[in-house]
């Protein structure tokens, strides 16, 4: 760990390798007056229980049950093995079903969803606001964050309480990431403009949880309005000594966690290590605002700002949508599709995932719904052979060799991927964008990563099988030797000293004699032993 | 001349002794080739190769007693890895041993039919079955290798093989297929139809 660079973090700005200067289309969704409008109640909400990485959580409601707004629907399973997060009811109503529904995921597969029919009353459960969070202990605060179902809202959706728990004592800098780098997304910018106090209050709570004195809010250079608003809130909340706003140059993907750290500190997070190893924790600005809601107002995470944008939308804007809202409801609220609509993407144009339909729900990770027209998407290009131009190497912000990686994956030489550090690829799409041969590089990398993941799982399973097989063999061998030893002993005992035999016979004779002498019920005892032998 | 002969002979002697000593002193425990081979075998322990488990098969391959194409769970990919390791040519899977399954499977006991005879427990090579005499039995899916050894002993045929279900936790992305475009208009129109259902 390089402490000098951490000390000076944010004072001077640095560069990360590669990157792309992209044309931005944020203004498209920022023309409506603030604050962003709240979406009217939908009839039905589709709430996937597994919105985070890992196994689905344990569902604690059943069909037919009436729930209130903010009531927990599922709780994380065994939190120690797989990270999980609480999921809450976005409004009051009836649970009509718990079933498999398609969810926004690159696989297009189904996942368990809770279907909630709104009753229109929108009744909150009893909230537990806190007047002075400073009275609460670190553990109490983290527990409230967990119970509110807060996850990273930048798109990674990792449970925030686990991040905070892991950072105990080892963190000295918190970076709040407001550098939205994807060309279309403006939900964080909107949040910083309309609710800067929430973010700063969240930052203050987090600095108490982490016991730190340095919080940096990173925003993009041209976000002037955000800068002013954040500075004002910092002043009014008297947080100027620990919270600073830093403007970072616009160079995609400067909002990537590792790239942002490199820009601010000049040090690269070592491959295979987490930023925590450098004493840095990065959270999205929206996550900080959600933490404020959770701690001070006691409100769980049931809604988020979503950018609905693209040339395929009639009135692009940011809206506040509840988790579980069908995407179609957002679209119709924004005036519907324009005639040229060609495809729907969740997230930005470079890192987003294609959606198969607009009946999928908004999830905690949905920062943007992007509707592209035929004019936006170049029709699929024929993939040409790699010409070794090296352009992809030049733009890769992770310092990888996309061209070599691509060849290795094509040849299915998965063992070599470890050395080439495929894990460090953030799937930013820079290489894909620049490649003159139109090679779908990111698709190859996603394929390579999933192949690696499957191999690790298979290896683990076969190791387990071997372990259990070996243990069984050992157990069987041990049982057999024991049985042999027992038999041997018994045989030896029987064939052993004749005196012993004699003494046994003598004892039997003595007992018989005694029985006869007593003459109470001699026949009974005899028949008893007989029947015992027969059975 | 004689001096040279004497020097070379004595050098040969010294090195010979040193090597001889080293080969005894630093001898490797176990059978390293068999270990490497075993690490490539799938550990299904199904005995389809004709040996009572993966380790014995690995040892037989190491001793060059048997071909490398007798493990159906390992399949063509496994044969290729073995061939790479041993410097042999990959050969197709021996159909006598069995066929490679398209999808991984696990066994499941129909618990209402199970009579609690414990026969399957005795057959399972990896102790993946739970149960006791005259009690219903069940299979720990996470530990089942799909070897099918428990199926024949069951007197009431209550064990079935089911494919491992694909969900978000074990989903795999496909290898990209190169696009071949016949008509540009056609492809973009197709896209529109699919994208906004
Ligand atoms: S997608 Fe991966 S390989 Fe390509 S530029 Fe981004 S980080 Fe580098
Ligand atoms: S940019 Fe494309 S063509 Fe150029 S080296 Fe990389 S993969 Fe090959
Ligand atoms: S066929 Fe393959 S998996 Fe089955 S026991 Fe033999 S080596 Fe193991
Ligand atoms: S449960 Fe049956 S199929 Fe599964 S490992 Fe045991 S014997 Fe094989």
Structural account:
The complex is a heterodimer of chains A (535) and B (197). Chain A has 15 helices and 17 strands. Chain A has 535 residues and is α/β, with parallel strands linked by helices. Chain A has 2 domains: 370 residues, NADH-ubiquinone oxidoreductase 51kDa subunit (Rossmann fold), CATH 3.40.50; 137 residues, Fumarate Reductase Iron-sulfur Protein, Chain B, domain 2. Chain A has a 6-stranded mixed beta sheet, sandwiched between helices. A 4-stranded antiparallel beta sheet of chain A has the order 2-8-7-4, with no helix packed on it. In chain A, strand 7 and strand 8 form a beta hairpin. Chain A is globular, with a radius of gyration of 33 Å. By secondary structure, chain B is mostly helical. Helices cover 36% and strands 7% of the residues of chain B. Chain B is elongated, with a radius of gyration of 27 Å. The termini of chain B are far apart. The complex binds iron/sulfur cluster (4 copies). The site of one iron/sulfur cluster has 14 residues of chain B, from loops.
Spatial order of the strands forming the largest sheet of chain A: 1-14-13-17-15-16
CATH class wording of one domain in chain B? Alpha Beta
Note the gap between the termini of chain A. 77 Å
Poorly predicted runs of chain B are 180-197
- Helical coverage of chain B, percent range: 25-40%
Which strand order do you get reading across the main beta sheet of chain B?
1-4
The quaternary state of the protein chains shown equals heterodimer
CATH architecture of one domain in chain B: 2-Layer Sandwich
Helix vs. strand class of chain A? alpha/beta
Determine the mean pLDDT of chain A.
84
Strand percentage of chain A: 15-25%
Integer average pLDDT of chain B: 83
The biggest chain-chain interface is: A-B, 48 and 37 residues
Please count the beta strands of chain A (DSSP E, at least 2 residues each).
17
What is the β-strand count of chain B?
4
Write the H/E string of chain B, N to C.
HHHHEHEEEH
Major beta sheet summary of chain A: 6 strands, mixed
Give me the number of helical elements of chain B: 6
């Amino acid at each position: 760990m390089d402490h000098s660079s951490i000390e000076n973090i944010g004072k001077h700005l640095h560069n990360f390798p590669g990157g792309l200067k992209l044309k931005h289309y944020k203004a498209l969704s920022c023309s409506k007056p603030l604050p962003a409008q709240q979406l009217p109640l939908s009839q039905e909400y589709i709430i996937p229980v597994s919105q985070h990485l890992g196994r689905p959580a344990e569902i604690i409601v059943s069909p037919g049950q009436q729930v209130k707004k903010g009531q927990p629907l599922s709780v994380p399973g065994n939190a120690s093995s797989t990270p999980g997060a609480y999921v809450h009811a976005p409004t009051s109503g009836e649970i009509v079903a718990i079933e498999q529904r398609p969810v926004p995921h690159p696989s297009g597969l189904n996942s368990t969803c809770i279907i909630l029919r709104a009753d229109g009353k929108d009744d909150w459960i009893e909230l537990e606001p806190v007047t002075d969070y400073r009275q609460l202990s670190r553990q109490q605060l983290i527990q409230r964050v967990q119970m509110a179902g807060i996850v990273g809202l930048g798109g990674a959706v990792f449970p925030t309480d686990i991040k905070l728990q892991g950072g105990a004592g080892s963190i000295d800098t918190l970076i709040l990431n407001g550098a939205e780098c994807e060309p279309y997304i403006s939900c964080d910018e909107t949040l910083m403009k309309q609710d800067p106090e929430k973010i700063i209050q969240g930052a203050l709570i987090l600095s108490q949880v982490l016991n730190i004195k340095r919080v940096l809010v990173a925003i993009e250079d041209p976000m002037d309005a955000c800068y002013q608003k954040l500075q004002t809130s910092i002043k009014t909340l008297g947080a100027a000594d620990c919270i600073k706003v830093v403007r970072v140059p616009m160079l995609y993907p400067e909002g990537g966690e590792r790239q942002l750290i490199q820009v601010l500190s000049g040090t690269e997070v070592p491959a295979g290590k987490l930023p925590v190893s450098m004493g840095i924790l990065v959270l999205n600005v929206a996550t900080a605002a959600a933490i404020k809601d959770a701690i001070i107002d006691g409100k769980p995470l049931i809604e988020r700002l979503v950018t609905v944008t693209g040339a395929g939308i009639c009135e692009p804007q940011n809206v506040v949508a509840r988790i579980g809202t069908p995407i179609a409801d957002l679209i119709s609220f924004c005036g519907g599709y324009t005639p040229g609509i060609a495809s729907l993407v969740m997230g930005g144009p470079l890192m987003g995932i294609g959606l198969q339909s607009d009946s999928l729900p908004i999830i905690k990770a949905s920062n943007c719904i992007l509707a592209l027209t035929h004019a936006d998407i170049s029709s699929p290009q024929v993939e040409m052979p790699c010409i070794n131009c090296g352009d992809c190497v030049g733009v890769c912000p992770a310092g990888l060799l996309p061209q070599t990686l691509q060849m290795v994956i094509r040849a299915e030489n998965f063992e070599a991927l470890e050395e080439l550090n495929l894990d460090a690829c953030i799937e930013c799409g820079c290489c894909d964008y620049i490649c003159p041969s139109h090679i779908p590089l990111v698709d190859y990398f996603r394929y390579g990563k999933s192949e690696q993941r499957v191999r690790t799982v298979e290896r683990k399973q076969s190791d387990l099988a071997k372990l259990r097989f070996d243990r069984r063999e050992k157990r069987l061998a041990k049982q057999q030797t024991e049985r042999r030893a027992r038999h041997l002993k018994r045989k030896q005992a029987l064939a052993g000293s004749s005196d012993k035999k004699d003494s046994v016979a003598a004892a039997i004779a003595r007992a018989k004699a005694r029985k006869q002498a007593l003459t109470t019920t001699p026949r009974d005892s005899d028949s008893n032993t007989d029947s015992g032998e027969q059975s | 001349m004689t001096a040279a002969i004497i020097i070379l002979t004595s050098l040969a002697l010294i090195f010979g002794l040193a090597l001889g000593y080293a080969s005894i002193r630093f001898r490797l425990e176990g059978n390293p080739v068999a270990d490497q081979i075993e690490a490539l075998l799938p550990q299904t322990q199904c005995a389809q190769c004709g040996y009572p488990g993966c380790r014995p098969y690995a040892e037989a391959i190491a001793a060059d007693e048997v071909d490398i194409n007798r493990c159906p769970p390992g399949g063509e990919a496994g044969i290729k890895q073995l061939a790479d390791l041993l410097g042999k040519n990959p050969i197709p899977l021996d159909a006598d041993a069995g066929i490679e399954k398209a999808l991984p499977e696990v066994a499941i006991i129909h618990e209402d039919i199970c009579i609690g005879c414990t026969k399957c427990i005795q057959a399972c090579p990896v102790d993946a079955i739970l149960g006791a005499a005259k009690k219903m039995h069940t299979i720990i899916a996470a530990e089942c290798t799909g070897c099918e050894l428990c199926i024949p002993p069951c007197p009431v045929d209550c064990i079935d093989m089911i494919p491992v279900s694909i969900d978000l936790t074990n989903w795999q992305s496909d290898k990209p297929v190169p696009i071949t475009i016949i008509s540009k208009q056609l492809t973009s129109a197709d896209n529109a139809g699919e994208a906004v259902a």
